[in-house]
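[audit] Reproducing an earlier prediction to check determinism. Same input, same settings, fresh worker. If the tokens differ from the archived copy the diff job will pick it up downstream; this log only records the rerun itself.
[audit] input (423 residues):
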Amino acid sequence: MAPADTVRRVRIYLSRDDQWEGGPRYLALLEQLRRIGATGATALQGLVGFGPSLRARAALTDHPDQHQPVVVEWVDRDERVARLLPDLADLLGNALVTVETIFVYQATLRARGPFTADRSVGDLMRHPAPAVSADTPLTEALNLLITEHLGALPVADPTNHLVGLITEQDLAWRAGLRLKPALLPLLTVEERTSAVAPLAGRTAREVMSAEPRSVGVNTAIPQALITMIEWGYAQIPVVDHDGRLAGLLGQEQVLRESVAQAQAKPAAGSVRDAQTPTAVRLVMQPVTAQVAASTRLNLALAQLLATPGRHLLVVDDGGRLVGALDDASALRQLGGAERAAFLAALQRPQAVPATALPGDDRPVVGLIEAHPSTLGPQLSVFDAAQRLLDLGIERLPVVDGDQQLLGIIARSGLIRALMQQSE
């Protein structure tokens, strides 16, 4: 660490019999410190002690461990202590808490990984967060999801406390909306009216997840990413200490932060200065959903509908990338009865046979997006993140110099790789 860094030691004096929600208070403190992004803390067990009551604790009596003193010792940078200590207020209770400046001979206080600066979720989040009330008509909530390019829409009460979350999955499972919201702007007025008919007369309360996961404004970025990945969230609500909605953290904000950190000049001789950025080839998904350019269109559309994410890469007989096909590009290019058949298939919960899809008389190559943007396998994950952000897309194929398809890199995969690099 740099000599100019100010480091604090926080000591919290407890007893082993201090309880919090049915468990030892000192363990709850350690877990909370870990969750909100403290660098490190240790619980130290004392032999004997006394407090203001002058009553000796853990004296050599019938139960020597019952009141044994415990000290939670937390060492961190001054800025982080000042930012995180208020979040411990409820857990601290009446405990004695001391804060002192200490001299550190050697330490690594979160100096590795792409999130090297002392930045928390509150520094990255989108704020104010788009939100609706529980009584908002579902069609209005859907429009907000589309116009704000959201994967998750917070629901807040009149005091701005988070009470729910609406995702694409909620709309599909609980409201019967079978089309992805991102596809609705591609529809005609008549097509859209039919697609959103199941939402008519319903409110956000009826479909929202009533116990949504969230992260605090002071949560460390890697810890927030763990929550997002575990729950499959592309975006997650951010709340303040009182549970009020403070913002929204998404993959875009995380990727922008990683690029900014990579571009920032590191201190000479620091750990980050010596690190080599991870190459795309090490984190790409090697097995991709692909189809041959000569495949009949109806067969390719059936495969597209069965593919998670509904995105196919199209290759020639030699395995070279020639284009891409997704549900949006197919909708744009199909017309008349063929478009109606494909649109109906998109909204069916069951698999649709190829015989019910258009295009049994021509190959898929006529419908693809030719010459899609690509990445080279030696590019760094930060270069890949920048390209995805610049293009405003979810994924990019990885090819070698001969356009041989090697794999694919998606935002979610990049975020997992960045999280693994962060300590």
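[audit] rerun output stored. Observation attached for the diff report: The two ends are 15 Å apart (CA to CA).
[audit] end
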